[in-house]
Amino acid sequence: MRNCLSRFGTIALLSVWISAALAQTDPLPSWNDGAAKQAIVAFVTDVTREGSPDFVPAPDRVATFDNDGTLWIEQPIYVQFAFALDRVKELAPQHPEWKDKQPFKAVLEGDMATLAAAGEHGAVEIVAATHAGMTPEQFIGMVKTWIASAKHPRFDRHYEDLVYQPMLEVLAYMRASGFKTFIVSGGGIEFMRAFAQKSYGIPPDQVVGSSIVTKFETRDGKPTLFRLPQVNFVDDGPGKPVGINQHIGLRPIAAFGNSDGDLQMLQWTTGSGGRRLGVLVHHTDAEREYAYDRNSKVGRLDKALDAAATDRWTVVDMKRDWKTIFPVRP
Amino acid sequence: MRNCLSRFGTIALLSVWISAALAQTDPLPSWNDGAAKQAIVAFVTDVTREGSPDFVPAPDRVATFDNDGTLWIEQPIYVQFAFALDRVKELAPQHPEWKDKQPFKAVLEGDMATLAAAGEHGAVEIVAATHAGMTPEQFIGMVKTWIASAKHPRFDRHYEDLVYQPMLEVLAYMRASGFKTFIVSGGGIEFMRAFAQKSYGIPPDQVVGSSIVTKFETRDGKPTLFRLPQVNFVDDGPGKPVGINQHIGLRPIAAFGNSDGDLQMLQWTTGSGGRRLGVLVHHTDAEREYAYDRNSKVGRLDKALDAAATDRWTVVDMKRDWKTIFPVRP
């Protein structure tokens, strides 16, 4: 028995050492030491330590993340827009009239100036032509096929390889700390569901996004959902707190964004009193990724950057704070 | 060391015994043995056993449950309607005009015939007057306060005590088998979120329901969501598959309902090929609960009962299949 006890004693001691070693493992190895990294680690530590005045019970640990520009690349155009343009080209043989019809003519001719001039109305027409007229399963299948082959024009890498390694670490760190992590994006909810589990470890029901109307009907005797060319919900700007309330039903205690589209989400998250975390990713690295903020057409960061100073949000300086940008894939 | 090993051996053997004993523990003790119980257990066994031709990986194990009449009592009126009527009475002093204005006059006078005659239009007016004009947090607080004190007219018990014990066992059994359980109800999403975690162990983000419009605005310098008297989404009938797709993003493999409002949810769930489970709770027990189906105004079960035969759904005969109806509380 003595032998036995001493063996148990050794095992117990060993497990204490292992825990201590794990506790000292850096949860954010791709982040340089600095104010941003410290702010994230201090927040997670404060809200998860039992007995801390800022302790938050696990069921209330909700963290929301914008997608484009926060979890993955959004320049020179949103990835979903690249998908839509490719799909217009793919569908063109079935639509000979597009050769003379804007905004499709501009897409087919690669005339980005005319396309930009078509504005929101043009974008809606393109979304209607490329995102509707099929079941959700069919649409998600199309996105998966596209994403497996399409490449970014500058980096010549698949889009799934252009997610931000430092943010993958934040997602994993927060989940390991009892947080439930949600995507809350202006992007299409079903577009994102095609890769959110694989790319971010986020299941479909934890993805909140913009949507078109979906209708239930019986087709050829089969119960079916069908995507219609009609906007249902825009999960951007003031729509983000609304989308969060609708889908999640809890006010987040941490929110991550990178543009003015995230302003209200960060305001609502951090404006509820108590220890809260608001983070903005500031794209400052033209060499390794892109540098843009107040005057950018994609991912404009202007009002939210001003609000960050007033509301004490953490601003991540991509160039200074991130050791690496994209994951190193074998 | 020999002592040690034999001790470990004993522990190992003991744990095998315990596992075997647990495996034999009845997961549904409030269900009488019969076709309904067997169908549920056989389904869960078939889709969770590795190597089974019907095996479904855990992330795809989505089960949806209607609330009123499936998880808790819905007679003689929906619980949420009882809440609304009580709230009209509570608000009446601030609305002297209601004394002469229908449908409020009928509510205040307890004139259920006139109230019923006011139909859907009357119901919408009552919902607008009682469910809007506050933040989601305030509304959920009101529901919690009400539910802690209100009692059912016949059973003289709190509504949270009038959940169905056999269904609580199904929820726990399916979760223990790797299912994610969701409520999908025609009831108000925020009404249900006030008690879903406590009553069913279902967190707010796994509740899908009907909703009114919520608006983000800054009030007195504070970011706020505000509930407006305007219908946003009706999660009933053909709305259920739509709501499921929007919130969950996966097609369920099991669905439980009790009325024609669940018809399309069951059709969509069981119509996708593969091993699927559709269950209807048939209220056949006038003595212990209520007996109603084809001609009931609340929870009418007519078309869905016909479809059950064709589509091979499991029909639970409450009187015959359930040993107990409500939980025995200390």
From TrEMBL, chains A, B:
Leader peptide range in chain numbering: 1-23
Record bears the keyword Hydrolase: yes
Domain of life the protein comes from: Bacteria
Coiled-coil annotated spans: none
Keywords associated with the record: Hydrolase, Signal
Keyword Repeat in record: no
Molecular function terms, GO-annotated: hydrolase activity
Family annotation (InterPro entries): HAD-like_sf (IPR036412), HAD_sf (IPR023214)
Stored Gene3D superfamilies: HAD superfamily/HAD-like (3.40.50.1000)
Stated name of the protein: Haloacid dehalogenase-like hydrolase
Organism, scientific name: Microvirga brassicacearum
